[in-house]
C-alpha cells in the first residue's frame, strides 16, 4: 500500500504529467541523488533527450529499488534539462517512457532548464524523493 496521496485542487489547472501536491504519510523517506544517463562504466549513453531520460530515470529507479522502494513511492521528482525547448517538444515520448517505467501516477514535479550538467554529454538529470510505507 502506498503512503502517498496525490492532491490536485480543482482551482488549479488540470495537471498533465505531474501532481500539484503529494501528501506523504509516516514512513521512510529516501532522498535520491541526481541521475544522468551514465552507464556502469561512467560513460553517458543515449543520443537524444528521450534516450537519456529513459536511462536517467532507470538509474534513479535502480537506486530507489536498492533502498527498498518502488516507483509508486516517488513523492517528488525534479528534471534538469540543458535544452528545455527540446525536452518539451519530446514530452509525448518522454511521457511514454514514464508510463512504461513508472506507471500512470505522477509525483510532484518540476522541470528546470539549465546551462549545463556535471557531465558535458548529459542532456538531462533527474533527482527525487520517495516515501516508503512505514
Tally of alpha and pi helices: 3
Mean pLDDT, rounded to whole units?
Answer: 93
CATH class: Alpha Beta
The appropriate CATH architecture is 2-Layer Sandwich
Count of all domains:
1
Secondary-structure element pattern, one letter each? EEEHEHHEE
Number of strands: 6
Give the proportion of residues in helices: 25-40%
Structural class, from secondary structure content? alpha+beta
Could you tell me the CATH topology label: 60s Ribosomal Protein L30, Chain: A
Main β-sheet: number of strands, strand sense, barrel status?
4 strands, mixed
Physical arrangement of strands within the biggest beta sheet: 3-6-4-5
Task: Compute the separation of the termini in Å.
Answer: 10 Å
- Global geometry: globular
Radius of gyration: 15 Å
Fraction in beta strands = 25-35%
Low-confidence stretches: none
Within CATH, the superfamily carries the name RutC-like
What does this structure look like?
With 134 residues, the chain is α+β, with helices and mostly antiparallel strands. 26% of the residues lie in helices and 31% in strands. The chain has one domain (4-133): 60s Ribosomal Protein L30, Chain: A, CATH 3.30.1330. The chain contains three helices and six strands, in the order βββαβααββ. The strands form two sheets. The protein has a four-stranded mixed β-sheet. A two-stranded antiparallel sheet has the order 1-2. Helix 1 runs parallel beside helix 3 (91-101). The chain is globular and about 40 Å long. The termini are close together. The relative contact order is 0.29.
Amino acid at each position: 500500500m502506498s503512503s502517498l496521496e496525490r492532491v490536485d485542487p480543482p482551482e488549479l489547472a488540470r495537471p498533465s504529467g505531474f501532481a500539484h501536491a503529494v501528501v506523504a504519510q509516516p514512513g521512510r523517506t529516501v532522498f535520491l541523488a541526481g541521475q544522468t544517463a551514465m552507464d556502469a562504466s561512467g560513460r553517458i549513453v543515449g543520443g537524444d533527450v528521450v534516450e537519456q531520460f529513459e536511462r536517467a530515470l532507470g538509474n534513479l529507479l535502480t537506486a530507489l529499488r536498492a533502498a527498498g522502494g518502488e516507483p509508486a513511492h516517488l513523492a517528488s521528482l525534479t528534471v534538469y534539462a540543458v535544452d528545455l525547448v527540446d525536452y518539451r517538444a519530446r514530452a509525448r515520448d518522454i511521457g511514454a517512457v514514464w508510463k512504461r517505467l513508472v506507471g500512470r501516477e505522477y509525483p510532484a514535479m518540476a522541470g528546470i532548464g539549465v546551462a549545463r550538467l556535471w557531465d558535458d554529454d548529459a542532456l538531462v538529470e533527474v533527482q527525487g524523493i520517495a516515501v516508503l510505507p512505514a
